[in-house]
Amino acid sequence: MQMNQPDNQAAIKNKTIKQVTVLGQGVMGVDIALTFAIAGYDVTAVDLFETQLEKAEKRAEANCMQMVAGGLLDKEQAQSALQRINRSMDWDAAIVKADFIMEVIPEDLAKKKALFTRCDKLCASDVIIASNTSSMSITRISEQMKYPERAITAHWTIPGHLSPLVELVSGVQTAKVTEAKAMTLFQQMGKHPVICKDTPGFIHNILQGALIGAAMGLMDAEIATAEEIDNVVKNGFGLRLPSVGPIQFMDMVGLDSIVNVGEYLAEALDEPGYRSHKRIRDKVQRGDLGVKTGKGFFEYQNADSDEFWEKINDGIIRTLKANKRN
User: In terms of CATH, what superfamily is 6-196?
Assistant: First the structure.
């Protein structure tokens, strides 16, 4: 029986998810399948090649053993998770029985569109179909679907079984219930889903791309080598990023200080691009300097900057201890 859109949205909302199908068993596909299995779902992991499925099995086992050694899983949890993954080359059968589908094939728009259309025809209309695309529009990927309201991007970051971030991107026709259902699903799995607009690169890759671009500029200008750049990131601001993001860090330092440094660099290097963004300068003009004034990009009531620095210090200490063990 064909459902109309309101009925289908209600069905999506009330769908019980037990069986997850992961389409593609490259590096990310392996990690994603394992993560669903660890969370207690029965998983069918599909690929075109038997050799790839064999590699996937070995990689999943190695990932589990590493998580056991690191104290993230015990041996029983790891063994149970591995037993919940069934590997197959029968794509249609895996699609038909799915309660939730994760597409993790290479970044080829035509192939993704074809696969989403295939899933749309084969699986129940209340099954969410999610793409792990890192940059492509879910609106375009789902444009040939009969039920595009259940299509969404769920972009995981490498390594998928360890990195908490999942970027959720709705298309023009994605239903709100689909977004809400996906948000709840990933939160229950211990992930940190973030809603992004359907723009190329989303949030993660635009930020990462800016850092890579700056790194290439330093190399082109012969200011630093590849090794020096990586060492600065790993042993400098990279250590504090697990505890505080770049926006809140500016609030903690003081937006007036950020502006002053930007002005100095712009003049010293004769490069206007180093000047602080207008959004930062406007806040300084209004007197919103960050933690010390109670408001910057975030608001702080009775904020004590020492508490924020203690949070950063705790995070760095944990990272340094982990690095020392390794």
Answer: NAD(P)-binding Rossmann-like Domain (3.40.50.720)
Instruction: Look at domain 236-324 and name its CATH class.
Output: mainly alpha
Which three-class secondary structure state does DSSP give residue 181?
helix
Length of the chain as a residue count: 326
- Partnered with residue 203 across adjacent β-strands are none
Report how far residue 7's alpha carbon sits from residue 150's, in angstroms, rounded to the nearest whole number: 12
DSSP letter string, 233-283: HHHTGGGTTTT--HHHHHHHH-HHHHHHHHHHHHHHTT-GGGSPPHHHHHH
pLDDT, tens digit, 9 for 90 and up, residues 233-284: 988 888 888 888 899 889 988 999 999 998 988 888 888 888 999 999 999 9
| Burial zone of 76 (CB within 10 Å; 0-12 exposed, 13-18 middle, 19+ buried) | exposed
Q: Give the closest residue to 176 by CA, choosing from 7, 3, 12.
A: 12
What single-letter DSSP state applies at residue 292?
G
**pLDDT above 80 (res 306):** no
3-state class (DSSP) for residue 42: strand
What amino acid is encoded at 3 in this protein?
Answer: M
* Nearest C-alpha neighbor of 94 from the set 35, 21, 15, 33: 21
Between 129-138, 212-221, 240-249, the lowest mean confidence (pLDDT) is in 240-249
**β-bridge mates for residue 46, sequence order:** 23, 88
Residue-range domain boundaries for the chain: 6-196, 236-324
3-state secondary structure of 227: helix
Q: Compute the distance between CA of residue 317 and CA of residue 312 in angstroms, rounded to an integer.
A: 9
In the chain, the N- to C-terminal Cα span, in Å, equals 57
CA 140 – CA 303 distance, rounded (Å) = 45
Q: How confident is the model at residue 195 (pLDDT cuts 50, 70, 90)?
A: very high
Residue with tokens 């800016």: 210
